[in-house]
Structure formats: structure tokens, C-alpha cells
Design goal:
It is a single chain. The protein is mainly α. The chain has a single domain (about 45-240), classed as Rhomboid-like (Rhomboid-like fold, Up-down Bundle), CATH 1.20.1540.10. It has eight helices and no strands. The longest helix is centred in the middle third of the chain and has 25 residues, at about 120-145. The two termini are about 30 Å apart.
């Protein structure tokens, strides 16, 4: 880090004072300075929130039992070949607070990936492919711990955990896929695992809107690990790296 110094020379008429850090960005003549938007999340990150919250709004228009029976994931679904529920369950949620909480986390952890892949179509396709694949593998991680289990799993938490794991590597690599064992990955991973171990032992009663419903904490941990490893090959395809 270097120090900045200002020369004590008289400013030119109309120029900003030296302590101002320079003139503000100007718009068209006479329009005044350009203001940076307070909210400037990439559109893919906003789209994920819309998928989560808007998807639940659509879900509420139909009978709950029918929706869960048709589209929720259960490890027992794999034997009869109902593999599509590994994907459809990602877009279902148990309550408004469940959807809103996942939406908030998705917005936070989508942003680094969206900026890596870029706003164009090919980057957006990579982003959403990563999101869905992370959710699918997180569900399979849950099924590996509960083979043949009949418990129903819904929610984007596994996919969002994948975004978290990927973001941890991007933070460690300053925008690119950093080391798998970087401080950011180890720190965020340890914190996330600790939270989910607590959930495993005491339940998720303290989570907003969870009530007496169970929490698929195994999918959360699996999603984080998947995200850490999956971002490597995906990052090599990112158009932003070209």
C-alpha cells in the first residue's frame, strides 16, 4: 500500500478540491453527476430470487399434497425411476419464509458467479446449469445418506449451498476459482458445517418458518462441497475469462 500526497497548488477555477478524490462522473451536458445505483446485482442473481419466490407463489395456487406427491424428491423415488423429482424439488418450498430465506441467500451468493460468467447468453446458461446441477448433486448427497428413504425434500437450499461453496473459492481467488483449501473456503465451510451439525442434533426449530418440519442438512453440506469442486471446471468455460 502506498501513501497518496496532494501538491499544495491553487486549484483551477471550477475544479473540485483536492480532498474530494477528483471530479464525479458526469452525465450529458447539463445533466449533473451520474449516480451509481444502490442496487446493482447481476440479472442472473435477481432471476434466481424470482425463480424461488415466484415459484412458491405459483405453488400456493395448487393443493399442497398433490404438489408434494408429484414433484418433491425422496430417495425412494429413485428405484421406480422418478429421477425428474431431483430437479423439480429444487423449485418447491415449504412456506413463504422458507422461500424468502433461500431467496436472500441466493441473491448474496449468486452475485460472484454471475459476474464471473458475464451477462451474455452463454454465461447465463452456464450460471443456471451450475445452479441446477449443484441442487441435483446435493439431493443425491442426501439420498446417499438415506438410501431408500421416504422423507420428502423440497427447496433450493442444496443449490444455494452450492453457490456458497463456489463463492468461497471465488473470494479466495479474487474473482477466479482460487485454491480449494483457501482461507475463505475453510472458514465459510467450517461455519456452514457447524450450523448444520447443530441442526442435525437439535433440529431446525430456530429457522424462520421451519416449524416442526425437518431440515435436509445433509443436502446443505453436500451442496457446499459440490460447489467448491464444481466451480473449477465451470470457471474454465466462463466467457468472462476469454
Amino acid at each position: 500500500m502506498t501513501e497518496s500526497r496532494f501538491e499544495e497548488t491553487p486549484p483551477k477555477p471550477g475544479s473540485p478540491p483536492p480532498w474530494s478524490g477528483g471530479s464525479e462522473p458526469q452525465g450529458p451536458t447539463g445533466s449533473g453527476p451520474v449516480r451509481e445505483p444502490v442496487f446493482n446485482a447481476p440479472w442472473q442473481a435477481v432471476a434466481v430470487v424470482v425463480l424461488i419466490v415466484g415459484g412458491y407463489a405459483l405453488q400456493t395456487l395448487f393443493p399442497v399434497d398433490a404438489i408434494l406427491a408429484a414433484y418433491a424428491f425422496s430417495p425412494a423415488n429413485l428405484a421406480p425411476g422418478r429421477w425428474e423429482t431431483i430437479i423439480t424439488s429444487i423449485f418447491l418450498h415449504g412456506s413463504w419464509s422458507h422461500a424468502m430465506m433461500n431467496g436472500a441467500f441466493a441473491l448474496a451468493f449468486s452475485t460472484p458467479l454471475a459476474r464471473l460468467f458475464g451477462p451474455k447468453l452463454e454465461g447465463a446458461l452456464l450460471f443456471f446449469a451450475f445452479y441446477v446441477l449443484a441442487g441435483v448433486l446435493a439431493n443425491l448427497g442426501y439420498a446417499a445418506v438415506h438410501p431408500g428413504g421416504h422423507g420428502l425434500v423440497v427447496g433450493a437450499s442444496g443449490a444455494v449451498s452450492g453457490l456458497m461453496g463456489a463463492s468461497a473459492r471465488l473470494i479466495g481467488g479474487q474473482g477466479r476459482a482460487g485454491p480449494i483449501f483457501s482461507r475463505s473456503v475453510l472458514g465459510m465451510g467450517a461455519g456452514w458445517i457447524l450450523i448444520n451439525v447443530i441442526i442435525a442434533f437439535v433440529g431446525g426449530w430456530f429457522l424462520p418458518g421451519q416449524g416442526s418440519a425437518g431440515v435436509a442438512w445433509e443436502a446443505h453440506i453436500a451442496g457446499f462441497v459440490v460447489g467448491v469442486f464444481l466451480i473449477g471446471p465451470f470457471a474454465r468455460l466462463a466467457p468472462a475469462w476469454d
